[in-house]
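Please decode residue identities from the backbone states below.
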């Protein structure tokens, strides 16, 4: 059995990675209060060891499972996107959902009908009605959807 503590979901709290030779490798995410929640099972392969690192250079921690048979398994973690939403007062809310796992370089501009948010380092996601290009590094939101008076930028880490 092998255990590793590492922040694999980018929220700033150490998560538990557990490898068991009998199979059933697990990741337990930590909510910061000591409560661990079982994430989806990584693999049923019998693993003896695990290692965590940014193997693909995208700013997020990936997981390597080492097996006795020599057929290791590498699970690539994807960068969690920055979310573009509206708060309860319909202010534009930009939340760094990856908790500082990558550098943000936000550019926010308007042409009088839309607000454009650009970040060359991460994908931006939104479900705001009429917004375009969710899942890319540039999101455009119609000003008509933003009836609040503020643009709020929240960072959850680094």
């Amino acid at each position: 059995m092998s255990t590793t503590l590492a922040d694999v979901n980018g929220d700033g709290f150490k998560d538990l990675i557990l490898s068991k030779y009998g199979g059933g490798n697990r990741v337990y995410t930590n909510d910061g209060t000591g409560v661990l929640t079982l994430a989806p099972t990584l693999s049923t392969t019998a693993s003896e060891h695990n290692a965590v690192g940014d193997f693909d250079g995208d700013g997020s921690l990936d997981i390597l499972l080492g097996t006795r048979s020599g057929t290791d398994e590498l699970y690539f973690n994807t960068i969690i996107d920055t979310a573009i939403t509206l708060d309860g007062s319909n202010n534009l809310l930009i939340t760094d959902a990856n908790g500082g796992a990558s550098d943000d370089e936000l550019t926010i501009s308007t042409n009088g009908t839309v607000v454009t948010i650009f970040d060359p380092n991460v994908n931006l996601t939104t479900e705001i009605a009429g917004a375009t290009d969710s899942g890319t590094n540039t999101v455009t939101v119609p000003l008509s959807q933003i009836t609040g008076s503020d643009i709020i930028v929240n960072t959850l880490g680094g």
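Observation: The mean pLDDT is 82.
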